[in-house]
Write a structure and sequence with these properties.
CATH superfamily of the largest domain: EAL domain
Largest sheet: 6 strands, mixed
CATH topology of the largest domain: TIM Barrel
CATH class of the largest domain: Alpha Beta
Oligomer: single chain
Radius of gyration: 24 Å
Distance between the termini: 38 Å
Strand content: 15-25%
Number of helices: 8
Number of domains: 2
């Protein structure tokens, strides 16, 4: 199970008794991203080992405790590294087992903060704390042509949280999918409302779409269905894609764009060369 939860380049060893060592290689060069990657693997290991084991016809359960230490430019001996991982593992045991802890307290604090923010974001989506603000889009004569839909989060305790803090987290956790659906739905409702008044009927709305959203199997159908459900004009909707979408499966990207364009939906390339 341990071997099945890591990549081929990683190393898994039985260290003695019920202790195992997993060595992850080629993590991100900066500590914060490396810590996130290590945490993701630890969660995967926990999920795998939490499945029941069948021994002699009976089911048994195991609650592992995982200690994590990172090493890069710092030259540490094997004994020191193992000692650090061991100390972190005992912290995981003290925290009630079936969890993971980092040797570095600052790193653990950052992981905890991220975990709390993720839980808050899930609740925030359910409680309607996410808002859509509209940034005006004007032409070269300063005439109002439409708006860009920007998502904002008003946290009941922490006030406004920067999209720079919660959008990357939403991307990593998959929460970007319900969040993206909400923004698209809200934008289509707004288009429908604007279409009922002569002075706003010409306005369009741009909606940012993440690579993860765009590559979902049912994305095209979801966009068209949302437009139809709110009786919104597809020609007034623009999807803003980031340049990262143009890397990878370009044929699939083109096919989806052609499908949506044939229904009238427009496209824009967002943050080209900046993100």
């Amino acid at each position: 199970r341990l071997v099945g939860s890591v990549r081929e380049a990683d190393t898994v060893a039985r260290f003695g008794g019920d202790e195992f060592v997993v060595m992850l290689e080629a993590l991100a060069p900066d500590l914060q991203n490396a810590a996130t990657q290590a945490e993701t693997v630890a969660e995967k290991l926990l999920a795998s080992l939490n499945q029941p084991f069948e021994l002699d016809g009976a089911q048994h359960y195991s609650t592992p405790s995982i200690g994590i230490t990172l090493f890069g430019d710092e030259r540490l001996g094997v004994d020191e590294l193992l000692k650090r991982a061991d100390l972190a593992m005992y912290q995981a045991k003290a925290a009630g087992r079936n969890t993971q802890r980092f040797f570095d307290p600052d790193m653990q604090a950052a992981v905890n903060a991220r975990s709390n923010l993720e839980a808050d974001l899930r609740q925030g989506l359910a409680r309607g704390e996410l808002l859509v603000h509209y940034q005006p889009v004007v032409d070269h004569h300063a005439r109002l042509m439409g708006a860009e839909a920007l998502v904002r989060w008003r946290h009941p305790q922490r006030g406004m949280i920067s999209p720079g803090d919660f959008i990357p987290l939403a991307e990593q956790t998959g929460l970007i999918l319900p969040l993206g659906q909400y923004v698209l739905r809200t934008a289509c409702e707004q288009l429908q409302r604007w279409s009922q008044h002569d002075n706003t009927a010409h306005l369009s709305i741009s909606v940012n779409v993440s690579a993860r959203q765009f590559r979902q199997p049912g994305f095209v159908a979801e966009v068209l269905q949302t437009l139809k459900a709110h009786n919104a004009d597809p020609r007034k909707l623009k999807l803003e894609l980031t340049e990262s979408l143009l890397l990878g499966d370009i044929e699939d990207t083109i096919a989806r764009m052609v499908q949506l364009k044939s229904e009238g939906v427009g496209f824009a390339l967002d943050d080209f060369g900046t993100g």
